[in-house]
């Protein structure tokens, strides 16, 4: 098992399980027998999914499960009561807090046969098998372009798929080598680099881009103290919004010189701002920092398993009330991250966590997680309808795990002309994520209305008149 994959195996905590969870919704029933056969034919082509993880003193390795039983991994369930969205969200919340057994391969598909007149599929896969981008690709390889095929996104031949991450080449190998170099520095110098800004600054003076990035990370202060920070518990809550038309989000973004991601994150920040304000919390000057995964995997290796991604820290300007000004701040923060060595540094940190002693692992995990309040993912999905086991996928979403003591996960995913926003929270820190979700759509409407009220500069610099318009509408 690679060092980075081992790190994700080691990071499991009772209060934050390292599993990726996906939810697919269908307007028609999906047959359990057909679903199991689909998993057998397309999911198990990756030999890794027949293997279980085994920890050893020198690291960890994969071992084929001699008693593999597909029925343990693909099972059906029924929701209680009205079997609607609320009941499904409660069921998903329970599964996200339920660990996968290490006695067998750590993945499960739960087919809900009675969801809203149709069905739902919940996928749980441990992060040690692959990162979110790879697993989304694996899931898409199981879909068809029509009810009876052909496959919408064919996967690599079995012989190549089984080699998985062992065939890293070119850009991928260079990235991995750079990450391992950072990891070796962290192993040599220990967690003191991240815990002591002075030591990190001295190392940065040596001129290496990577060591400079370590110093910047060490000097990075915590984000604002909000109710989302604290010691998480075992219980979780999930909620998701009604999808927004992707065309409308793109049109609004073009009008403001912003990306779909900028628009969505600005609305997320606005919804969180309103939630905090309604709770009576201070919002002026508040910044919520999120860890954002960055794909480091070349396209030709998209179907290979393993973890090949880095992380960047993104500040969400919760304290900005004007939605246009908030969007420009999000855009500026995103732009500042371009060309950053943070992703490779983060991958190096994970490599060090997977090979170093447990004390170093705990120190590095604490140093990373204490600087952020959320993990945020944004995945552009296919823009045509897809079918799974003969049923059309109506919508889909997924969440990656929250590391350390982070208690919030934000998921943005586009599919078939719509974009979906989902939220995962710790029940002790935020017991009602549906209240944030409920304000997301109105934040988009407010941003749209504000954009139509004036001609905003695409460069994001507001002149005094524009600032006055914003103050008149939003009370300063």
Q: Which descriptors apply to this entry?
A:
seven-stranded mixed β-sheet, Chloramphenicol Acetyltransferase, alpha+beta, 20% strand, 476 residues, 17 helices, six-stranded mixed β-sheet
Strand content: 15-25%
Q: Radius of gyration, rounded?
A: 22 Å
Average pLDDT, rounded to a whole number, is: 83
Instruction: Give me the CATH fold name of the domain at 3-158.
Output: Chloramphenicol Acetyltransferase
The number of strands is 15
Shape: globular
- Give the termini separation: 55 Å
Q: Given the structure, what is the number of helices? A: 17
* CATH architecture name of the domain at 3-158: 2-Layer Sandwich
Helical coverage, percent range: 25-40%
Q: By helix and strand content, what is the structural category?
A: alpha+beta
In CATH's first tier, which class of the domain at 3-158 applies? Alpha Beta
Description:
This protein is α+β, with helices and mostly antiparallel strands and 476 residues long. The chain has a domain of 156 residues: Chloramphenicol acetyltransferase-like domain (Chloramphenicol Acetyltransferase, 2-Layer Sandwich), CATH 3.30.559.10. It is built from 17 helices and 15 strands. Strands 7, 8, 9, 10, 11, 14 and 15 form a 7-stranded mixed sheet that branches. The protein has a 6-stranded mixed sheet with strand order 4-5-6-1-13-12, with helices on both faces. A hairpin with a 2-residue loop joins strand 14 and strand 15. Helix 8 runs antiparallel to helix 9. It is globular, with a radius of gyration of 22 Å. About 6% of the residues have low confidence.
